[in-house]
Specification:
Layout lengths: L1 H9 L11 H17 L2 H13 L5 H14 L1 H9 L6 H22 L7 H15 L2 H24 L1 H27 L16 H4 L2 H35 L10 H24 L1
GO cellular component, one term: brush border
Protein name: Solute carrier family 34 member 2a
Family: Belongs to the SLC34A transporter family.
Amino acid sequence: AISWLNDYLCMCVDFPFPFGWVTGYIAILVGAGMTFIVQSSSVFTSAITPLVGIGVISIERAYPLSLGANIGTTTTAILAAMAAPGDSLANALQIALIHFVFNVSGIIMWYSIPFTRIPIRLAKALGNITAEHRWFAGIYIISCFFLLPLIIFGLSMAGWKVLVGVGVPIVALLMIIIIVNLLQERRPSCLPTVLRSWDFLPLWAHSLEPWDRVVAVVAAKCCCCCKGRQTGQEEEEEEEKKGGGNFLEMYDNPAMTSGVDWEKKREDKEDVLKATQL
């Protein structure tokens, strides 16, 4: 499988002008085939990620490969469904095909039309932010994979009215921010003078520099505390090693101890005899 990927990367060129759009769909087929061979989309995407990082594969080419991997991973579910007993074969195939159709519909929605390839632009933007502020990657993972699902789950448990009442204003605010950002980049003349930039907001509301300083201060304090504890432990160990030669170690000799005990017993017997003689 790795040799096939190397062969594909060697031929990783766009088709001539009339058929340039075919290149991405060929990449989707390659991603699906590679995932079908290794039977794991995670393995395939994990192999692509460092290649994108070192510049062997562009993000525009890695995107269709990842989409193809999502199609290839559905083959495992289809094969498992075909091995189901006869009475549950129909239900198993329906679930597997739903998985397949869901992934294909996602590809049609986010790849077939060039201007809908929003994940590519998002990946570049988030990558540029992370390259400047390394802590942003951890905040992004915690927020998107833990906090956001928990918040949505909690609102859904409270009822659909609460979910709609809280979710709709937040989504509307995000849409307004996105539209204003697009107009600031492309048609700033359409906006009022105040909205042509976010400078009217506090610095922490439109820039990551204040948060970067906060993270740097917290990290420095944590490092100093950890370093101080480690230094204290090392000093204690050194003092114990240096002072270890000044202490005398004493051991009990069983022979001597037993002799002393025998002498005490004999003296006790003599005292008893003297007392009885009196």
